[in-house]
Amino acid sequence: MISTIVWGTGNFGRAAICAVDAHPGLDLAAVLVHDPGKVGRDAGDLGGLGRELGVRASGDAAVVLATGPRAVVYAASGDVRSADVVADICAALRAGAIVVTPSIYPLYDHRDDRQDLQEPIRAAIAEGRGSLFVSCVDPDWTDEMVPLLLSGLGPGVDRIHCQEIVDYSGYDQPDSVRYLVGMGEPLDYLAPMIAPRMPTTVWGGQVRLMARALGVELDEIRETLERRPLEASVETDTMGKFDAGGQGALRFEVQGIVGGEPRIVIEHVNRIDPACAPDWPSPPEGQSGTQRVIVEGDRQIAMIVVGAAPAGGDEAMSVGRLVGAIDWLAGQAPGFYDALDVPLRPAAAPELAAASV
């Protein structure tokens, strides 16, 4: 069993606790939390499992890392505290841990050597002989491996279009939804997530990864942006009121340009009210979000993924990619890994194995 800790218990961390608990090769050894009110709570409670796991949350990272965990699922947000995230991950790497995380967006493509933050991370890997695999912000496995797998089903590829369509109205992340993304804020408020070049910082790594896998050279990466105001105020159960006139819908693209044309495109369509921007693509009725992948070439291949999880629960579909990589990484040399390095693996299914005996 691989001793594993989950660091952070937000939406992604809760899903990570469930995934580690379900994996037959992993042992949930500890949970690290930032909120003092969560210290001492059982991991099963924090993960929403409805049962206790006998693991109490700690707020002391140094003490937990001193126990020598083999792996760390780093689930704390990197949206507004990137320097702290790098410091945390370096501490885990120096302790010799395998670290899997979605929290350092610029390192989705770690071969992009323009990122200065690589230097301390590579030093920590060399010192502690740990490993780092960065992937899967949101459910963005649909922005890297799935399009590449679909591309292999046809004789040629002219264009890849990845699309995420999300209704935020059921989310419980007011700081991120209001101030990071800008929902409900005046249209003259430039939210950090849509500031110039920020979408490329977050999603450009996936565009570069796909280009590298396809063997094409990008001319550049471009961005497009559209915003729509709320026509009427809306009240959400989890985040309160969003006033009329504030941003109600947001649509942007990160485009990989090849031969002067957008050939690898990641698009996001986000709303705080399903009625806002009705002419834009929407999730299926009754769903909070959907992902679409369209591969165009000699034939068109399309895939639609609709999350059955509650609003904000798309993390359950992406955390499996990271948690499922831990036992593979345990058999590899220490180092820096990306989505093209780590193979896609079937889920561990002990119930099915037992049923087949």
Automatic annotation (TrEMBL):
The record's annotation in SUPFAM superfamilies points to:
NAD(P)-binding Rossmann-fold domains
Q: Which InterPro entries is this protein grouped with? A: NAD(P)-bd_dom_sf
UniProt name for this protein = Dihydrodipicolinate reductase
Which species is the source of this protein? Rhodococcus daqingensis
